[in-house]
Amino acid sequence: MAKKLIILLCAVAAYAVGFQPTWWLRDAVLGAFGSPAYEGVWILIPHVFLYSTLSAVVCLVLWLALIRLKWLSPMPLAFSRGVVLWGLAGAVLAAAASFAYFAIQMPEALHAARVNPWIAGANLFSNFYEEFIFRGFLLAALTAALGFWPAALLSSIAFAAVHTQYPLDLQAVLAGCAVAWCWIVRRTKSLWSAYIAHMALDWIVDPFV
């Protein structure tokens, strides 16, 4: 019981880092550079260094420590054709849900494809950090403490909650997709499947919204 409580507290602490000091660090760095406009290299820099990087580092340290204690299993990083296929299937499911949401709730947000290479490239980093945090450490830690389905639900709600730029109903759609990605990670025994799903989703949907 004590072991599960410690693991749960580690998960809560890792998630809390995403709010403070991460938000303070982001605002301090951007402020030091004159709060530059979100364009060009200033799309890439925050995605690589400021948004969820610190949380990912904390998750890495905690995960390695708990693995060393044999309280958590090794990181699920297998790679195979099945991992890719399940990842793409997760992306198609999430893309369909996203387009349906925008078509019904915000049709004015849809437009002809416009690709921003800075955003497409920046997501390679921030999406990896997010997957490492939410479908990685948090899912593993919460599963050890609470079981898989409570862990999938809680980590997915936590994932949606950090996307404060979206309205609540879109956050709910995002949480539902995240639960599916948790299952895919469990099915493939690989975090790469969720990363592929996340990246493919963004590359499919972002140009049109």
Task: Offer a quick outline of the entry.
The chain has 209 residues and is mainly alpha-helical.
- The number of helices is 9
On the 0-100 scale, what is the average pLDDT? 97
Note the run of SSEs as H and E. Answer: HHHHHHHHH
Shape type: globular
Number of domains: 1
Strand content: under 5%
Please tally the β strands and state the result: 0
Spatial separation of the terminal alpha carbons: 46 Å
pLDDT < 50 stretches: none
Largest sheet: none
Helix content: over 70%
Roughly how many Å is the radius of gyration? 17 Å
Summing up helix and strand content along with how strands pair, one would put the structural category as mainly alpha
